Amino acid sequence: xxxxxxxxxxxxxxxxxxxxxxxxxxxxxxxxxxxxxxxxxxxxxxxxxxxxxxxxxxxxxxxxxxxxxxxxxxxxxxxxxxxxxxxxxxxxxxxxxxxxxxxxxxxxxxxxxxxxxxxxxxxxxxxxxxxxxxxxxxxxxx
Length: 142
Description:
Helix content: 25-40%
Distance between the termini: 23 Å
Organism: Rhizobium alvei
Largest sheet: 3 strands, antiparallel
InterPro entries: DUF1178
Protein name: DUF1178 family protein
Order of helices and strands: EEHEHEHEHH
Low-confidence stretches: none
Pfam family, one: DUF1178
Structural class: alpha+beta
């Protein structure tokens, strides 16, 4: 997975995770990457310093101290994720297989959620299967 710092044309800064740089390019071309603050689809990568990990570094968790605006955004995001889950079939570990069946017309088109490794997700994207990762929200991990 590749982590990019992104910025919209209205100077809102946010982050995104992508299976590959080609995945980012593809999603940008299709207008799938939008600013979570204003909805603008005019998004670009920001200059980033490389992240070099040494054996002595401990794994860090990225965190957000939330003010009311951030709490509201997380609440809206939670509503969207819940609606997606309510209107999709959870196929668990069979996600890559079921997504391919739909993509290749071997199964009825329907919304799916499930689990895929980063390698499986990258392979699906390279095959042209349109997938998106659901975000892990604060209450999901606390």
